[in-house]
Design goal:
Elements (H helix, E strand, L loop, with lengths): L1 H104 L3
Length: 108
């Protein structure tokens, strides 16, 4: 009995303590794994949101490029029209000067 109480019992108690420690460690690892899985899901969701925002920005940049090109065409057409107005104004000035010279050549 002495051998069982002193040797076997101590070994048995150590085995029980070791089992409890393993159980506690397993619970800790399980909780940690669940936390990691949860963080991974959150990270994945955030990555998808960022990807959607980047896609929207890319589409907006494409639209902006197209609108900028339209504005450039409009400015070029306006410049051509202004140049034509300037030419016509010069022609009108020249015509007005000739008319003035003709009018002065008549004696009243």
């Amino acid at each position: 009995m002495y051998y069982i109480d002193n040797s076997v019992r101590k070994g048995y108690d150590l085995l029980i303590d070791t089992g409890k420690n393993y159980e506690n460690d397993a619970a800790f690892i399980s909780d940690t794994s669940q936390n990691i899985a949860s963080m991974s899901e959150e990270l994945n969701a955030s990555t998808e949101e960022i990807s959607a925002v980047v896609q929207t920005i890319a589409e907006n940049m494409k639209d902006t490029k197209g609108n900028s090109e339209d504005i450039l065409v409009g400015i070029q057409e306006t410049n051509k029209a202004i140049e034509q107005v300037a030419v016509v104004a010069q022609q009108q000035t020249a015509t007005a000067e000739r008319l003035t010279q003709l009018a002065l050549s008549f004696k009243i």
